[in-house]
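One-letter codes give the sequence; backbone shape is given numerically. An example follows:

. . .
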Amino acid sequence: MFGRDSGLSLDQAPPLQIPLRFFVTAPIFGIVAGLFILAFVPSLAARSSLEVITLTHFFTIGFLAMVMIGAMFQMLPVVAGARFKYQNILAPLIHSLLSGGLIVFAYGIYTYTSIAMIVAMVLMAFAFLMFIFSTLSALIKAKNVTPTIKAFIFSLLSLFIAILLAMHITISHATTDISTSHQALLNAHILFSLMGWVGMLIIGVSFQVVPMFYVAESYPEFYKKHAVKVIFISMLGLAFGLINDNYQLYLLFKIFISLVFIDYGVTTVSRLITRKRKISDTTIHYWYLAMSMLIVALLLSLANEYFNNYLLNTVAAIIFIYGFAMSIITGMLYKVVPFLTWFHLTNQGYMNMPTMNDLIGKKLTTIQFYLHVVSLASLIGLVFINDLQVVAGVVVFLSNAFILYNLIKGSKLYFTKQGLEKMNF
């Protein structure tokens, strides 16, 4: 996909610094999340508490959105043959607004300060809307609308809806004007953020990276053509059921969306098991963990429609965000960052290149993988056992510190070029 046979050149690909600034920032916010747990989060049982809301956004915006936006800057030239206009200005601006906005948001929500909430909303909304419209304007120019591009478009539409809902919710809190439909709108915001923006973008990216990086069979054509359409339409129906208090409609579409995502998880695992390149690395473990956690999260959420236990719903959310989304994204970072380092150096004519696997090293990524698993377990435990606060905070901190170190190690050679020789043309 990135090779010379695909037609990708340095004229199309952005400089490594553009996606890397987003990739490196993500574990920094993960480290902040670990410190925040240590200082302010004695329990995750009350998901509507101010500290839990703040922590959730450190993970969803600080980690997930950062990496996903950085990945879009990198992938757009590859999958659509187009790139962002003024990317050297746009990328730092979006990054700065999003980073600053999240910090102000964390302060505003935790202290429940109205002016801080409004300022944060303006900063982050502006960043997201700039990203959405600049990306869509580039995607419109794509000559061939592939399943991955369709997934990108529907995920961006979902993000747009999620941002509009977030603005309404934030203004409601800032003005203390909470309507009777507030909870339904909040649930719709969560739906379009997680299942729409995060879920569909991951599906679209996997259409490309699973066959490319793992020499695996492509996803079924019917699934690639129709899955994201079905998910998006079902989300609209589910949201309509939520807002209009129609439980039967809500449940029908929830089951339908869950089945589509479960099928995606099972299909992905089957592709990885039967892959042609049987070499095992840490990223494979991340894929297996992510797909299993996706299925578990959806089954728990469906089961909660019967049990109606708010703790079960909280566990499902933790597993989806940290177990599924953060797992898959961390695993892909370990593939993408070394690959981009190797790709850019090779195209600059440097020799003596180490292999992509050697740029970070399996031992470091394996240690971090185990820390990630322990941190996931500790976050789930923190829903039920307050005494796990210190453990959860420490392992989340360490896990993300290892990610940060690994990403710096994986990209350092690009900047130092230590020990490399340049070919003479």
Summary: Residues 1-10 have pLDDT under 50 and may be disordered. The chain is about 80% helix and 0% strand. Residues 310-347 form the longest helix (38 residues). The domain at 4-416 is CATH 1.20.210.10 (Cytochrome C Oxidase; Chain A).
